[in-house]
Design a protein that fits this description.
This protein is an alpha+beta fold. It starts with 7 loop residues before the first strand and ends with a strand. Helices cover 31% and strands 27% of the residues. Strand 6, helix 5 and strand 7 form a beta-alpha-beta unit.
């Protein structure tokens, strides 16, 4: 049994990928990041239709920012893959994964090439919903001691789709696939959360479509390029 399941492997490049079940039959996959994604990442994060709903990336977003971020993402993805490749003896049981090594959404064209569509990451929660710094540090320290597969681990998700593919059901299909094909069977995830800047109605609709429920709003929580904005927190709980 391959410990990569349910990931498939590109027979030409050897790159693992997760195939997304898309209602309109687009050939959508999620793969590890690649350094040559930088131009697409820079273009997306300099587009106001994307960055207006983000708090972290610098603006303007330069190629060096993209290369640094991609390098970090690649290093983490490779760490997760190495963990999966470690021998587990004769057991036929899939071992719990540390995280998800695939996080770049792509569409495969008829000639086999693919195009960058966006990002979908799932991570151990940073617990940003806990406002008290001391309490947050204590919770994070406790979380860090939890081993892979612990059902009490809280997971954060973060995502975006390039603007010209908004409204096509790509992200809802990708998140649904990630939950059912990876988060549940490989991470043993029982609870996930996502934060959305207040006013980002489209993202809330996507998350609600895949089972997230609005938990609450923190007013004036984020300083977004000099403007105080509220953050809405949504939660998914495994049934």
């Amino acid at each position: 049994m391959t410990q990569l399941l349910p990931l498939e492997v590109n027979s030409t490049t050897g790159e693992p990928f997760l195939r997304v079940s898309h209602p309109h039959n687009h050939d959508i996959i999620i793969t590890p990041p690649r350094l040559h994604d930088v131009d697409a990442v820079v273009a997306a994060l300099n587009d106001p239709r994307v960055y207006r709903w983000m708090t972290g990336p610098p603006l303007p977003y330069q190629p060096e920012h993209g290369l640094s971020w991609l390098s970090e993402q690649m290093e983490e993805a490779e760490q997760f893959l190495r963990h999966l490749e470690e021998p587990v003896g004769a057991s036929e049981i899939l071992k719990p994964a540390l995280g998800c090594p695939v996080r770049i959404i792509r569409e495969v064209k008829e000639d086999g090439t693919d195009i960058y569509l966006g990002f979908l990451g799932i991570y151990r929660s940073e617990r940003k919903e806990i406002l008290d710094v001391g309490k947050r540090a204590a919770v994070l320290a406790d979380d860090a001691r939890k081993k892979a597969g612990d059902p009490t681990i809280l997971w954060d998700i973060a995502d975006y789709v390039v603007p010209d593919r908004h409204g096509q059901g790509i992200m809802s299909a990708a998140i649904s696939t990630l939950i059912q094909s990876w988060a549940i069977p490989r991470l043993n995830a029982h609870k996930m959360q996502a934060s959305v800047l207040e006013g980002n109605v489209a993202s809330i609709k996507v998350l609600e479509k895949v089972g997230f429920k609005l938990r609450g709003t923190l007013c004036d929580y984020e300083d977004v390029r000099g403007v105080s904005m509220g953050t809405q927190w949504l939660e998914w709980t495994r049934e």
